[in-house]
Specification:
The protein is an alpha+beta fold and 133 residues long. The chain has one domain: Ubiquitin-like (UB roll), CATH 3.10.20.30. It binds FE2/S2 (inorganic) cluster. The site of FE2/S2 (inorganic) cluster has 14 residues, from loops.
């Protein structure tokens, strides 16, 4: 608050504009989905949705999301590029249980419905498995 109070009025206007643009969805986050075949699908989405929703809304193949994002189907399984793993929220117990059912599970496996799109994930790279079960 002290930082904001010390800003010049022009700076305050800039901060307000950034908040407004973010609220209106004009701040976009880039995510690169790579299919098992190597086919790339770059998308840009607004923060606030999940990585699964980013895929579904952009018709990215390889993400089924049968349960609609309730962490109960594991058909949104992705492999997260190693450099992004430490930027994700921790693996939840339900997510871990669902992933344990997947024969394709790897150390970088995550359920994309459990990854919220935030600005810090701009540039995220995930690969889809050959099959969702
Ligand atoms: S969409 Fe069902 S577990 Fe992610």
């Amino acid at each position: 608050m002290a930082v904001i109070a010390s800003l010049a009025s022009g700076d305050k206007l800039l901060l307000w504009q950034i908040d407004f643009l973010h609220f209106m969805g004009f701040v976009m986050v880039k995510i690169l989905f790579i299919e098992h075949s190597g086919q790339e699908h770059p998308v840009e989405v607004a923060p606030g949705m999940s990585v699964m929703e980013a895929a579904i809304n952009n018709a990215v193949p390889g993400i089924d999301a049968d349960c609609g994002g309730f962490c109960s189907c594991a058909t949104c399984h992705v492999f997260v590029n190693e450099q992004w793993l430490d930027k994700l929220p921790p693996l939840g117990s339900n997510e871990d249980a669902m992933l344990s059912l997947s024969p394709d599970r790897k150390e970088n496996s995550r359920l994309s419905c459990q990854i919220p799109v935030v600005e810090a994930l701009d540039g995220l790279v995930v690969t889809t498995p050959e099959f969702q079960f």
